[in-house]
Amino acid sequence: MPEFTLAQLAEMVGGKVEGDSGLRIGNISDLAGAGPGHLSFLGNRRYLQAAKQTGASAILVPLDEDESFPCALIRVESPSLAFAKVAEHFRPAPVSYAPGVHPTAVLAADVVLGEGASIQPHAVVEAGARIGARTVIGSGVHVGAGAVIGEDCLLYPRVVLREHCVLGSRVILHAGAVIGSDGFGYEFKEGRHEKIPQIGYVQIDDDVEIGSNTTVDRGRFGRTWIKKGAKIDNLVMIAHNVVVGEHSVLVGQVGVSGSTVIGKYVTLAGQVGLAGHLQVGDKAVITAQSGVAKDVPAGSVLSGRHALPLRENLKLEALFRKLPEMWDKIRGLEKAAGK
C-alpha cells in the first residue's frame, strides 16, 4: 500500500492542511473503523459524533466546519468527492485482461472483434455480433446474434446480452445482468394467457453502468432505451419500452413498468415502484419505497406509499403517529357525552 504525506494528499484534492503536513497516511477508512495512519472524511454532519471519536490520523472536513477533532484535518469544498479522489491512489491496481480470444470461448465465424478486445473463458458470441476495440467480454458471458458493443466496455462474468441489443462505449455491465429479455406481455384469451411477441431491442448509450442481476427487457416493438451516463444499481427491473434519461440514478430494487419515460438527472431511491406509461420530469427525486401511479412534474420531490410531495407526506406521517392518542381522546369525549 502506498504512503502519502498530508501535504501531498491536500495537493491532490485542492485542500488546506491543519496539523502536521508531514504526517504520513498509508490507508483510508470510514470514521468508525479508522486507526493510526488512516485518512477518513466527514461528508455529512449526522456523523459528527463519530468524527469526534475517530481513531484516524486525519480526516477531510468541509471548509466551514467549526467543530474540533482529535486529529489533523484537510479542509476541502466537498469531503465526499475529495475522499473518492484520494481513494483512487490507495486502491489495488485494476485487473487487466490480455487481448485475444480464450481457447474455450465460442465465437461464430462472422463475429467482428475490434483491436485489443478480450474474450474470456467460456464466453459465447453468436452470429453477426460486433465487439468494439478494447472491450472485455468476461467469462461465461453470452452475446446474442447481431448484438453490437462499443469500445472500452466491460461485461463481467455471466452477463447476458440478448440478440440485436446495442451498447455504446464505456458501458459497464456487472455480473448477472440480463439485457434484452422478452418484455412481460400477454393477452388473456379463451381462458389462457397468450404471449405477445417482443420484437424490439435494448439500446444502452455511452458511459452507462448497470449493477449485478439487474434486468432490462427488450421493447415490445422499437427500443427500451437507457441514455448516456445513467447509473443503475443491483436488482433493478426495467420493463419493455422504458426510457431512462441521461445521468439519472436508479437505486437497488427499483421497478419501472412498461413504456414509462424517465427524464434527465432523476433519482429513484431504493424500492421505488413506477406504474406503466408515466412521465417523470427532469431532476425529480422519489424517495425510498414510494409507489408512483401518476406523472411526476420536473423537479418534484415525492415520498411515501402514494408518492406525495415530501412536505405533505412528512406531515401525514406525523399525524399518523398521533392517531392512537387522538382515538383515545375521541373515545373519552364519546363516553363523557354518554354515547
Describe the overall structure.
The strands form six sheets. The protein has a twelve-stranded mixed β-sheet with strand order 8-11-14-17-20-25-28-31-34-37-39-40, with helices on one face. A ten-stranded parallel β-sheet has the order 9-12-15-18-21-26-29-32-35-38, with no helix packed on it. It is an alpha/beta fold and 339 residues long. It is flat and about 75 Å long. Strand 22 (186-189) and strand 23 form a beta hairpin.
Strand order of the largest sheet: 8-11-14-17-20-25-28-31-34-37-39-40
Radius of gyration: 26 Å
Main sheet characteristics: 12 strands, mixed
The share of residues in helices is 10-25%
Count of DSSP H/I helices: 5
The counted number of beta strands is 40
Overall average residue pLDDT: 95
- The computed structural class is alpha/beta
Low-confidence stretches: none
